[in-house]
Design a protein that fits this description.
single chain; alpha+beta; Hypothetical Protein Pfu-838710-001; CHAD domain; 2 domains; eight-stranded antiparallel beta barrel; 54% helix; globular
């Protein structure tokens, strides 16, 4: 339960953890999901596990409690009472902390009923006071068969659990097929190494969703609670510290969005995943600029592949959730719109299924695990002698150079702006997007706060306008694809209306885009010092 380690955390903020000998109220685990329970058999028979003795099989029945107002949930805590062979254990857990760490306290109890005195001992004092005498009720349960063994691996001690079963909330049921690797002693990098070894025998994808997260989503509906994954860089950070602070939240966001990608009803799932991948690509680009990390180029290619696999789903999301509703909301002709929307939703379902296939496959899972392992090792320092010293330099200088280079690339792509064709605009938009992500990260550490906000806003307006015009172009392409496939007369009329609106958007947007471009070229600054002219 209370895993500790002496190294640095891998998948989030990379904060130092307590020494391995000290017991803490913290578990460190890596959770991996399978596509179906049958794949767990392949994991159990993997050579690294097949010869290990001491396997135990347990039947676990867990009930999760909260108040009617979800006071525990909203404060970031979960309360569970688990029955295992006639014994009961009450457990309080908090939302994930740094990296793979997670606050946990537990105590044996006489029954599945909530004992208020014991609960008060398990909760932090302020949370116990806030809960007061509010009644608790069961919200959902989990019935799990767990195969469990403790393994010595790569100088660490790791508990391996293979879980198969169900989460039940009323009449709603969700299957469970996952692997949990909990660090009992040693380094967190061993968790990733073991996960990569096991992924050779079945597709495994890292997951940030606990059983309680899945249970609440099942009981309450929706994708579940959003996690905060804000990147915060400061002027006094070294390159090494800044890269850790960048990769950690980006990886956490990517892992958290894996289960959301498959759901067409959750359009933010694909978008959030693509944002996370862009931040990861930005970090890898910075590593390559610093001549560090022999694997950075390989990882960047894989991240680019995965982002490409999600592009089609994002395009259909924008058409279905933004462009078509904007037209129908304007009280234009509605005949045929229902049929058109149905056709669009069919394509969305297929696109999300394709994205989910990519996300839950072995290639994407290995990519995320490889990124976690590489980050936990600070792999960007794995280069020729002197790499560690290079990354000990302040981030501020690298930030200035990166911003200046990206700014030059944007200006180069935007040369003769009035004559750019569609392909030229596309390449310009990509460069502007890269500069925008870099500006969000770096301008606040190379400029005064007020100036940074002003310049980021100027760039954001240009990025948004380029994005709106690109969405209009892409929507028109998708609608013409539907026309070629064949539509009913009513749906064809509805399509013509939407196409006409996109034509208006493109026509009117041109003037706005030219203004945004002019504002950008005149006002945007990267914070690089200018040479004074000699009088």
């Amino acid at each position: 339960m209370r895993g500790t380690q002496g190294g640095k955390m891998g998948a989030a903020a990379l904060l130092p953890m307590p020494a391995a000998d000290i017991a803490t109220d913290c578990e460190i685990e890596l959770k991996l999901t399978c596509r179906d329970p049958s794949q767990l058999a392949a994991i159990a028979t993997a050579p690294i596990l097949a010869g290990v003795g001491g396997w135990r099989t347990r039947q676990l029945f867990s009930t999760y409690y909260d108040t009617d107002a979800l006071l525990l949930r909203q404060s970031g805590y979960t309360l569970r009472v688990r029955e295992d062979r006639g014994r009961f254990v009450m457990t309080v857990k908090a939302q994930r902390g740094a990296g793979l760490s997670r606050f946990e306290r537990e105590e044996a109890v006489p029954s599945s009923s909530i004992d208020g005195a014991i609960l008060s001992r398990l909760l932090p004092a302020d949370m116990a006071d806030a809960l007061g005498a509010a009644p608790l009720r069961p919200l959902f349960t989990a019935r799990i068969e767990r195969q469990q063994v403790t393994l010595d691996f790569a100088g660490s001690t790791i508990e391996v659990a293979l879980d198969r079963g169900q989460i039940l909330a009323g009449e709603r049921i969700e299957p469970v097929a996952e692997v949990e690797l909990e660090l009992k002693r040693g380094s967190v990098t061993a968790l990733y190494e073991l996960a990569l070894e096991l992924s050779n025998h079945a597709p495994l994808v890292p997951s940030g969703r606990t059983k309680s997260d899945r249970g609440f989503a099942l009981a309450l509906g929706g994708p579940g609670r959003e996690t905060a994954n804000e990147v915060r860089l400061t002027r006094d950070m070294s390159r090494d510290q800044a890269l850790g602070a960048l990769f950690g939240p980006a990886l956490t966001q990517a892992v958290d969005h894996v289960p959301r990608v498959a759901d067409p009803a959750d359009a933010e799932g694909v978008h959030g995943m693509r944002v996370a991948l862009r931040h990861i690509r930005m970090g890898l680009w910075l590593v390559k600029r610093s001549e560090g990390g022999l694997l950075a180029g390989v990882l960047a290619d894989e991240v680019r592949w995965l982002a490409g696999e999600l592009g089609e789903a994002r395009d259909w999301d924008v058409l279905a959730k933004e462009i078509v509703p904007a037209v129908t909301a304007a009280d234009l002709e509605r005949a045929g719109f229902r049929t058109l929307v149905q056709r669009i939703e069919q394509h969305r379902d297929l696109a999300h299924a394709k994205a989910a296939e990519a996300m839950t496959g072995g290639r994407a899972g290995r990519l995320l695990l490889s990124l976690g392992l590489w980050t936990s090792r600070h792999g960007w320092r794995d280069t020729e002698p002197g790499g560690e010293a290079r990354f000990a330099k302040p981030i501020k200088g690298l930030a200035r150079k990166a911003l200046a280079d990206l700014h030059r690339q944007v200006l180069k792509r935007g040369r003769k702006f009035d004559r750019l064709d569609a392909e030229g605009r596309h390449h310009l938009r990509i460069r502007v997007k890269s500069l925008a992500y870099a500006a969000d990260l770096f301008l606040p550490i190379v400029q005064k706060r007020k100036a940074a906000r002003r310049h980021v806003a100027t760039l954001k307006r240009l990025q948004d306008q380029l994005g709106r015009l690109n969405d209009a172009i892409r929507a028109s392409e998708l609608l013409n694809q539907l026309v070629e496939e064949g539509l009913s007369p009513g749906a064809r009329r509805a399509t013509d209306i939407v196409l006409a609106r996109q034509h208006v958007t493109l026509t009117e947007g041109e003037a706005a885009l030219r203004r945004r471009w002019l504002d950008f070229t005149r006002a945007f600054e990267t914070g690089r010092k200018r040479k004074r002219r000699r009088g």
